[in-house]
Amino acid sequence: MEESLMVKEPPVGKNIKKMFEKNFTEKKHVYIKVAYSILYDEEDAKDVLQEAYCEALKHIKDLRDYNSFDIWFYKILINKCKQMYKKAKYRTKQLPIDESTPPTDAMFSKTRIDEKIILKDIIFNLSNEHREIIILKYFQGFSLKEISEITDLPLGTVKSRLFYAVEKIRKYYL
C-alpha cells in the first residue's frame, strides 16, 4: 500500500472527503482500466466509475479502516460493473468459444500485438466471474485474500475460479 494513503488516525469531517477525492484523483486511470477490462465498453466503464464514485462518496463515512480504502472502493466498483454486466446488452455481447475445436497454429501470429489481442479476446470470452478474478489478480496485483474481500467470496471460491480461468486461458492460448 502506498505510504501517502496510510493514516494513523481516521480522518474526520471534511478530511474524509479530501482524502477520498485525493485518492480517487490519483487512481482514476487505474479504476477506469478495471471497469473497461470487465465491460469492454469505454462509455459504460466511465458511467460505472461515476456511479461507483457517487456511491463511495455517499458512504465514505461508513469506511472503518481508512488504510483499506482501495479494497473498499474496488468492491464498490466491481459491484457496479456486475450490475451493468447483468443488463441484456452484456448477456448478448459475449461470443461463446467453440470448446470442441482446439486452437490451431494458423489462429496465432508470431507478433506480440496479435498475441495480446488474442489473449484479450480469450479473457473477454471468460465468464464475468472468472474474468473479474483474472483482472484483479494479474492486472491489478491483488492477493487472493484481497480479492476475496473485494468480491465477497470465500477464499476457496476465489482460488477455484482463478484455477479454472487460468486453465481455460491455457487451453486456448497455448
UniProtKB/TrEMBL annotation:
Q: Which residues form the RNA polymerase sigma-70 region domain?
A: 32-89, 125-171
Molecular function terms in GO for this entry? DNA binding; sigma factor activity
GO terms in the biological process aspect are: DNA-templated transcription initiation
The answer on whether this UniProt entry bears the keyword rRNA-binding reads: no
Q: What UniProt keywords are attached to this protein's entry?
A: DNA-binding, Sigma factor, Transcription, Transcription regulation
Annotated TM spans: none
Q: Could you tell me the superkingdom of the organism this chain comes from?
A: Bacteria
Query: Which family, according to UniProt?
Result: Belongs to the sigma-70 factor family. ECF subfamily.
Q: Give the NCBIfam families listed for this entry.
A: sigma70-ECF
Task: Tell me what this protein is called.
Answer: RNA polymerase sigma factor, sigma-70 family
